[in-house]
Amino acid sequence: MRTTAFCAALSGALALTALSVPAAQADTVVGDTTVSNIVVNGGKDVVIGTTNKVTFKVTFTASDPSGIEDGESYLYKGTWSDPSAFWSDDRDEDTTCAAGTKVTCTTTYTITPEYDLYGDVSAGAWRAGAYAKATDGNSAKKTNLGGFSLKRYAKLTVNASPEPVTKGKAITVTGKLTRASWNDRAYHGYTGQSVKLQFRKAGSSTYSTVKTISTNSYGNLKTTVTASTDGYWRYCFPGSSTTASAAATGDFVDVK
User: Fold this and answer.
1) Which residue among 127, 151, 175 closes a domain?
2) I want to staple 66 with a disulfide (CB 3.0 to 4.6 A). Which of 122, 124, 136, 205 is the partner?
3) Which stretches of the chain score pLDDT less than 70?
4) At 208, which CATH number?
5) pLDDT recorded at residue 3
6) Which domain holds residue 38?
7) 52 and 143, same domain (yes or no)
């Protein structure tokens, strides 16, 4: 949001899942069964911190003239034949398929950072596949049906001072950007990242971007602006391919 939308409504996901090894055979179709339209977490990133379980759903469409008996989904990073990380539901109750000849199947995944992640290398682009079995014995398994991003949770702080300040004088705005590490389950400074400094005038509901600065080698932020009117200052991080977006809670400065 430049005024930035992602800063106004941050979203996260919490989850757990079961691990298994992909079958040697990739795409297989027996008869007229089909699987398609896979969606992970409603099309949003899956964002995981250091301790909390994260739960999300995977849905896909399965069809067969005889009806669908059951299904399964697969999430993997890398290639199907040689994934660096792999999740699937290895229990029948983890995936439910509605009754009918063309139905929606839903898998619920729950991820515990301590047990289900493979370190920071797990962050980034993942792929998704699905399997369905029909009541007449036909089946279909398709890999690479869709994808999603698995991201590390980020935190952002801000402090604007002095408070109050004389109009026309300098305000110093400091802060820090950190992100979850799945290697040691702690938060560390995120270095060299572009972060927006934003201002919301008192009485307004909209933030506007004033300038963009970068975090230092410790994830710290510091800049100065000229005081003009009462309002709230915050930092906003748009996110990266491995890390979720984050926005600090606005810090109010009274301008005299």
Assistant:
1) 151
2) 136
3) 1-25, 90-93
4) 2.60.40.730
5) 29
6) 5-151
7) yes
Strands (E), the chain: 15-16, 28-30, 34-40, 46-48, 54-63, 68-78, 83-88, 95-97, 102-111, 124-134, 139-152, 154-161, 170-181, 186-189, 194-201, 208-214, 220-226, 231-237, 246-247, 251-253
Q: Does 192 share its domain with 135?
A: no
CATH number at residue 75: 2.60.40
How many domains are there within the chain? 2
Return the pLDDT at 17: 37
Alpha helices in 179-243 (DSSP H): none
User: What pLDDT does 25 receive?
Assistant: 66
**Cβ–Cβ under 8 Å, residues 97 and 131:** no
Same domain for 243 and 188? yes
The pLDDT assigned to 44 comes to 97
Q: Provide CB contacts within 8 A for 10, sequence distance 6+.
A: 244, 245, 246, 247
Smallest CA-to-CA distance from 69 within 89, 107, 95 is with 95
Beta strand pairing call for 46-48 and 139-152: parallel
d(Cα 52, Cα 55) in Å, to the nearest integer? Answer: 10
- 46 and 132 both lie in a single domain: yes
Q: What is the pLDDT of residue 55?
A: 95
